[in-house]
Amino acid sequence: MLTHTHVRSIEWGDCDPAGIVFHPRYLAYFDHATCLLFARAGFDLATLQSRFGVLGYPVVDLHSRFTTPCRFGDEVRIETRVAEFRNSSFDVHHRLYRGADLAVEATVTRVWAGPHPDDPQRLQARPVPEAVRVALGTE
Description:
Layout: E1 3-9, H1 24-40, H2 45-52, E2 59-66, E3 75-85, E4 89-98, E5 101-111, E6 113-115, E7 123-125, H3 130-135
Antiparallel strand pairs: 1-3, 2-5, 3-4, 4-5, 6-7
């Protein structure tokens, strides 16, 4: 199973008045980590759009658990992998560590989506291609 590890520093703008990471910022970190995972597998978003005609993989569900606060200047490590594929949706599992401590754990459900054939303002779920499943190592 392909896992991508990304290291980043917590920036001042990521923090709330209490000096800890404002919780929605973690979702932005995880979104970026998902893009990095797919790129590492050879499927950056531009490739997905041109090769498979999808617009992306929007979030439809999110479960998270916060166990240790992160603060400005902390260096954190994010480990990201696809935990499960279904027909058109998949779960991406993220673990964010501050040092050896697990600070945040999240499972984000995303849907493989392209333009709706009858209404270009809407999205329509599509099956995740086998090539993507194989590259991410969950098959």
